[in-house]
């Protein structure tokens, strides 16, 4: 895989998380576009040749930021998190950039089979959700995401109200002093 191929075949850049799919292909999340703006897109690679096949997502609607992801085909869902716009990250962390909206605050729900963006779940101002995981039980339609700036761990789960909808519950570890 060549970075230029990401630009030309997918209009994405700054690859981050990779997962091998059951099909043998490789799915990679990207942080942004070639200009360094945020863009929560994905690139799909051939698992044998590593040739860039193109974007995984279908349609024009994508989240404004990307970072980590995890998928659960049994429940027809992929959940992605948001970090920050690559051109802002290059200058180092500045708390004012959080206020400007250059850092994430959502987890994003995708329909696995249609590869479309379904829903953004707002985790709150200053949350910056990063690492995301489903439970290790493939029958479970729930998981957790760690939020870097807020220090919270958020639980997400499928709701019964809407088959495609997801909800969240916040939990955080009590602060403690270390000596």
Description:
It contains three helices and twelve strands, in the order αββββββααββββββ. The strands form three sheets. The chain has a four-stranded antiparallel β-sheet with strand order 1-2-3-4, with helices on one face. Helix content is 9%, strand content 40%. It has one domain (3-172): Methylamine Dehydrogenase, Chain H. A hairpin with a 7-residue loop joins strand 11 (152-158) and strand 12 (166-172). The protein is mainly beta and 179 residues long. The model is unreliable at 169-179 (pLDDT under 50).
| Large-scale geometry | globular
What is the typical, i.e. mean, pLDDT? Answer: 87
Strand content: 35-45%
Q: Return the string of H and E elements.
A: HEEEEEEHHEEEEEE
Largest sheet: 4 strands, antiparallel
Number of domains: 1
* First-to-last CA distance: 47 Å
- The tally of beta strands, per DSSP, is 12
Computed Rg: 16 Å
- Overall CATH class: Mainly Beta
Low confidence ranges: 169-179
Structural class: mainly beta
Tally of alpha and pi helices: 3
> What is the helix content?
under 10%
Question: CATH-wise, what's the superfamily?
Answer: YVTN repeat-like/Quinoprotein amine dehydrogenase
What do we call the CATH topology? Methylamine Dehydrogenase, Chain H
Catalytic activity: methanethiol + O2 + H2O = hydrogen sulfide + formaldehyde + H2O2 + H(+)
GO molecular function, one term: methanethiol oxidase activity
Organism: Patagioenas fasciata monilis
Pfam families: SBP56
Structural topology:
Layout: H1 3-10, E1 13-20, E2 26-32, E3 42-45, E4 52-55, E5 69-72, E6 77-81, H2 86-89, H3 95-99, E7 106-111, E8 116-122, E9 129-134, E10 142-147, E11 152-158, E12 166-172
Antiparallel strand pairs: 1-2, 2-3, 3-4, 5-6, 6-7, 7-8, 9-10, 10-11, 11-12
């Amino acid at each position: 895989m060549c970075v230029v191929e990401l630009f030309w075949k997918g209009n994405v850049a700054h690859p981050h998380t990779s997962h091998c799919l059951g099909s043998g292909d490789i799915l990679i999340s990207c942080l942004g576009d070639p200009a360094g703006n945020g863009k929560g897109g994905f690139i799909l690679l051939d698992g044998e040749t590593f040739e860039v096949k193109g974007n995984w997502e279908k349609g024009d609607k994508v989240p404004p930021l990307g970072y980590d992801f995890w998928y659960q085909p049994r429940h027809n869902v992929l959940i992605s998190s948001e970090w920050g716009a690559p051109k802002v990250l290059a200058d180092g962390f500045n708390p004012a950039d959080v206020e400007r909206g250059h850092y994430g605050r959502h987890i994003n729900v995708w329909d696995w089979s249609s590869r479309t963006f379904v829903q953004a779940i707002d985790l709150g101002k200053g949350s910056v959700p990063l690492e995301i995981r489903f439970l290790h039980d493939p029958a479970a339609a729930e998981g957790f995401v760690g939020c870097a700036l807020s220090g919270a761990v958020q639980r997400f789960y499928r709701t019964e109200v809407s088959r495609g909808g997801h909800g969240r519950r916040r939990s955080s570890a009590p602060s403690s002093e270390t000596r």
